[in-house]
Amino acid sequence: MQSATIQPAQLATNTTRPLAPRDYKSDLPPIWCPGCGDFGVLSALFKALSVCNLDPTRTGIVSGIGCSSRLPGFVAAYGFHGVHGRVLPVATGIKSARPDLNVIGVGGDGDGYSIGGGHLPHAARRNPDITYLIMNNNTYGLTKGQVSPTSMVPLASVGAKMDPKRWKTTPYGNTEDFINPIAMAIAYDCSFVARGFSYKPNQLADLLVEAIQHRGFALVDVFSPCPTFNQDQTDEFYKHRTYDIPAEHDPTDRAAAFALACDTKGYPLGVLYKHTTKPSIIEEQAAVRERLHGLGAMEELIKRFE
Question: Three-state DSSP class for 237?
Fold first, then answer.
C-alpha cells in the first residue's frame, strides 16, 4: 500500500482523448531477429503507455547501445539514443531538468549491468522519478553472442564443451559467475524492483504500469530470450523455471524480497520490492529551488560570472 507521505508519480498524460497502444507506434518497424523476446517487451510497453495514457509529446525514452536499445525509434515519443551504459545519467539529467516529463530508460543486460552497472547504486540512492526497463537476454546480442554479466553458461571447470559458434569469446566455457541483478537492486535499496518475462506480455504490461506510476526509481528486469545467439536460456528454459510471486508476499519487506530474489529453485515474476517512504531527488531538488526563491536567485548567481 502506498505511504501517505509518498504519493504516486505525477504523470504527464494526454488530456484530449484516451490513447490506444497503436497510437504510440512510430512509422519505423522493429528490426529485431524473428522470435526475439524484445517484440513482447515492446508490445507490453505500448499497452502500459496506453493504460497510463501518457502524452507522447511529454514523454522521453532513453537508451544506450545494444539490440534492445533500438527501442526508442519504434515509439512515437521523444527518444534519446545515448552511448554505451549511460542510460541512467542521461535519464536522471532529463528528469532533473524537466521534472514535468515522463522519462523511461531502456537497455539490455550488457548495457545496464556491465559498463552501466556502476550507475545503478547511485540511481538507487538518488531515487529519480524514472522507470528503467532492462531486456535481459543473457548475452551480447548486437555484437554477435559474447557472454554478458548475466550469462548462465556452464563453467569450464566442470568439463562443459561450448559451441564456439554460440559463445565466441568463451568457446571452452565461461569461467566467470553470473550476477543476480534483482538481488543487487534490492541490496542497493532501489525503491521499486520487479521482474517480468517477455512471453507473459500482459503480466509485464501490468508491471510496467505500476513502475511508471511509482514515484521514484523503478527497475524492471525482463527475461527477453535471444533466439539467435543464446540457445541455452531460451523461452522454454524460462517457461519451466519462472513462477509468479505468491500473493502473500509483502513487497515492502526488504528482507523477504531479498530472500525471494535469491531463490535457487526458480525465478520469481512480479513486484519483489517496493519502498513506499523513500523521497525522490526530484522532490529534493524542488525543495532546494524553493529555498533559492526560484530561478531568480539562480539568474543572479549566473550574472556574477558574466
Answer: helix
Given the DSSP bridges, would you call strands 218-223 and 267-274 parallel, antiparallel or unpaired? Answer: unpaired
What is the pLDDT of the chain when averaged over all its residues?
89
Q: Is residue 259 part of a domain?
A: yes
Percent of the chain residues topping a pLDDT of 70: 89
* Grid cell of 82 as nine digits: 545515448
- CB count within 10 Å of CB 264 equals 4
Residue written as grid cell 559498463 = 115
12 assigned to some structural domain: no
Biggest CA-to-CA distance, the chain: 68
**C-beta separation of 43 from 201 below 8 A:** yes
Domain residues for 266? 21-279
Q: What is the pLDDT of residue 160?
A: 45
Residues 6+ apart with CB under 8 A from 280: 127, 128, 129, 191, 215, 216, 217
Report whether 76 contacts 23 (CB < 8 A). yes
Contacts of 25 (CB under 8 A, 6+ apart): 46, 74, 75, 76
The structural domain count of the chain equals: 1
Determine the Cα–Cα distance for residues 138 and 64; give it in Å rounded to an integer: 17
Tens digit of pLDDT for each residue in 7-50?
778 899 998 999 999 999 999 999 999 999 999 999 999 999 99
- Domain-embedded: residue 262: yes
- Alpha-carbon distance of 101 to 129, in angstroms, equals 10
The CATH number covering residue 88 comes to: 3.40.50.970
Q: Is residue 49 part of a domain?
A: yes
Q: Does the structure show a pLDDT above 90 at 52?
A: yes
User: pLDDT of 110-146, one tens digit each?
Assistant: 999 999 999 999 999 999 999 999 999 988 888 887 8
* Statement: residue 99 has pLDDT above 60: yes
